[in-house]
Amino acid sequence: MREGQRAARRREDVLAAACAVVAERGADATRFSDVTAVTGVGVSTLQYYFGSREDMLIAVFRLSARMDFDQVTARLEGETDPWRRLVVIASYLTGAVGSDISWRVWVESWRWALRDAGLRAEVLGDYTRWRELLAAEIEAGVRGRAFTTRAAPLDVARQALALIDGLALPVVLGDPAVDRDAAAGLLIDALARLTGRVQE
């Protein structure tokens, strides 16, 4: 591996660790020194990698969004059934499976996007990408007669994202009435209704 590649890999490893720090402390409370404490990378190196603390946080938001999409894409490999593909995407996005670190970072990115027009455009772009992915799966399900909805796939995708957001929040906040299992059950039931899933 070349020196430039090693440096890029190291920077990304530091960012991944910073994601966990932001999820735990919140973006406003995250400092270079907090990231140094968990990575062992000096503050001067962090400044070299990112410039300002704010630039580091925006890089964290970008990495987290990219990693989420990459992980979902990997989970979809080899899966051809539209319903199961839809459940994989939606379950990941609600935090009904795995860690809620990415959701906590996602919430932090929303907060920052309210004050930063450039980041807002990126967050909305990420949201559009998820909506289009869901719409494509819904459209495939309708074509394959797995779903019976007559609504526009993009509209169903918007409704599905609203459902996902609504279920993810109590999961992330630790609501005892809506744990991961409860969220997964509610999610599957509502998605089946939205898509008009044909039971096998």
TrEMBL record:
Segments crossing the lipid bilayer: none
InterPro entries in UniProt: BetI_C, Homeodomain-like_sf, HTH-type_TetR-like_transc_reg, HTH_TetR, Tet_transcr_reg_TetR-rel_C_sf
Cited Gene3D superfamilies: Tetracycline Repressor, domain 2 (1.10.357.10)
Keywords: DNA-binding, Repressor, Transcription, Transcription regulation
Domain HTH tetR-type: start-end pairs: 8-68
Matches recorded under Pfam families: TetR_C_6, TetR_N
PROSITE patterns attached to this UniProt entry: HTH_TETR_2 (PS50977)
Start-end of DNA-binding region: 31-50
Protein name: TetR family transcriptional regulator C-terminal domain-containing protein
